């Protein structure tokens, strides 16, 4: 599939999505699992002849060759220097690049056809996806001392091995194998964590406790996700394709099912901008139309201004969204378009907050009728 879409920072990008690109999206997590949380919904939209969500995910792919910014913050060269020399490569380092390519192709041909199912072997060996292919041109590393001698014996010392159950880079089975090498190890799977568990409060507490006492202690905090990452159920092309918001049991709601669908779309429009802010520079474009811009104050509160944003074609949203440093969420949205009678909505709740997922409470008026409905926070 080819076309144009805006990336998370509002840059119009020429996009080509093939099987390898889809695999890249599936395994390389964007911030807060934005891309993976939308992947199934993009497939559903594509099946309904709506390519816009998938093209946008394609535009948000970080290409292998790009400016990665200040190398003191992140160095792609240091990354390859480490990975290419540390990992097992399916070729001889002494071979020329052309010979390495032949050896790589031979190793690939020896793999079972369903090794990367449901993806093909060729897609998994694509330059954008395969680190082994990316290392083909790397200079032969200077030999270094082996980390362990052949058939090593691991000491029975206290060892803590942490892993995230949403890790899409290193399979859980491999991490368990590493933990099993150490007789005194404790393996802890952290619910809701990805490739790097360090940033999650539960894993931080376990590490501090382990360093101070050499005891792992109570690991029950790892059994429940600290944050339930938001996933998307669908990309409504029109408001009629959206799920209707639930009527608040303790409020006075006067709008019918059609306008309750509009409320769902309006909230999704605001959340879509926040998701793009989390993986972009804060300035971006709505899925179907419009723009947004986010600013952060000295206290860590983020305000996102929506200008004529459209998540569904027939609902336009303007207004401000405030995502507080305490993870509170408040939005005042002006809703218009062919799919609604129009009006003003006020949304309150939390977003990406620890604990069980609750509901946004939405009040206001649409078509002069009072609104009192609920929309899930994730």
How would you characterize this protein structure?
There is one protein chain. The chain is of the alpha+beta class and 378 residues long. The chain has 10 helices and 13 strands. It has helices spanning 19-27, 34-47, 52-59, 76-86, 97-110, 121-124, 131-134, 172-181, 201-213, 257-279; strands at residues 2-6, 12-16, 159-164, 185-190, 246-247, 283-285, 289-296, 302-310, 316-323, 328-336, 343-350, 359-366, 369-376. A hairpin with an 8-residue loop joins strand 11 (343-350) and strand 12.
- The portion of residues assigned to helices is 25-40%
Decide which structural class fits the backbone.
alpha+beta
Give the low-confidence spans. none
What percentage of amino acids are in beta strands? 15-25%
- On the 0 to 100 scale, the average pLDDT is 93
First-to-last CA distance = 29 Å
Largest sheet: 9 strands, antiparallel
Strand order of the largest sheet: 5-13-12-11-10-9-8-7-6
What's the shape? Answer: globular
Q: From the alpha-carbon coordinates, what is the Rg to the nearest angstrom?
A: 24 Å
- String of helices and strands: EEHHHHHHHEHEHEHEEEEEEEE
The tally of beta strands, per DSSP, is 13
Report the total helices: 10
Keywords:
378 residues; nine-stranded antiparallel sheet; 29% helix; two-stranded antiparallel sheet; alpha+beta; 10 helices; single chain
Please give the structural blueprint.
Elements: E1 2-6, E2 12-16, H1 19-27, H2 34-47, H3 52-59, H4 76-86, H5 97-110, H6 121-124, H7 131-134, E3 159-164, H8 172-181, E4 185-190, H9 201-213, E5 246-247, H10 257-279, E6 283-285, E7 289-296, E8 302-310, E9 316-323, E10 328-336, E11 343-350, E12 359-366, E13 369-376
Parallel strand pairs: 3-4
Antiparallel strand pairs: 1-2, 5-13, 6-7, 7-8, 8-9, 9-10, 10-11, 11-12, 12-13
Helix pairs in contact: 2-3
């Amino acid at each position: 599939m080819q076309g144009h879409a805006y990336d998370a920072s509002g840059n119009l990008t020429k996009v080509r999505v093939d099987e390898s690109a889809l695999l890249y999206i599936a395994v390389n997590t964007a911030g807060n699992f934005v891309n993976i949380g939308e992947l199934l919904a993009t497939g559903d939209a594509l099946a309904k002849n709506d390519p816009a969500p998938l093209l946008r995910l394609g535009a948000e792919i970080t290409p292998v060759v790009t400016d990665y910014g200040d190398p003191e913050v992140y160095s792609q060269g240091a990354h390859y220097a480490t990975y290419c020399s540390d990992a097992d490569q399916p070729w001889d380092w002494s071979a020329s690049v052309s010979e390495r390519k032949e050896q790589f192709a031979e190793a690939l041909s020896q793999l079972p056809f369903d090794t990367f199912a449901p993806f093909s072997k060729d897609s998994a060996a694509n330059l954008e996806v395969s680190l082994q292919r990316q290392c083909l041109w790397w200079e032969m590393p200077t030999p270094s001392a082996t980390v362990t001698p052949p058939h090593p014996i691991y000491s029975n010392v206290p060892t803590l091995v942490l892993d995230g159950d949403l890790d899409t880079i290193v399979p859980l089975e491999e991490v368990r194998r590493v933990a099993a090498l150490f007789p005194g190890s404790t393996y802890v799977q952290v619910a809701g964590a990805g490739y790097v568990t360090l940033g999650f409060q539960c894993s931080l507490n376990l590490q501090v406790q382990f360093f101070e006492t050499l005891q792992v202690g109570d690991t029950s905090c790892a059994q429940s996700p600290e944050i339930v990452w938001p996933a998307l159920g669908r990309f409504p092309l029109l408001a009629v394709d959206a799920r209707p918001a639930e009527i608040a049991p303790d409020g006075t709601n006067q709008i019918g099912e059609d306008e309750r669908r509009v409320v769902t779309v309006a909230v999704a429009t605001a959340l879509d901008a926040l998701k793009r802010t989390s993986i972009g520079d804060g300035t971006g474009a709505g899925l179907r139309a419009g723009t947004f811009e986010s600013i952060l104050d000295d206290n860590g509160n983020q305000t996102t201004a929506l200008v004529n944003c459209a998540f569904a074609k027939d609902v336009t949203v303007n207004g401000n969204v405030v995502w507080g440093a305490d993870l509170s969420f408040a939005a005042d949205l002006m809703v218009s378009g062919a799919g609604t009678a129009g009006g003003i909505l006020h949304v309150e709740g939390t977003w990406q907050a620890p604990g069980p997922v609750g509901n946004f409470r939405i009040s206001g008026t649409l078509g002069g009728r009072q609104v009192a409905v609920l929309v899930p926070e994730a």
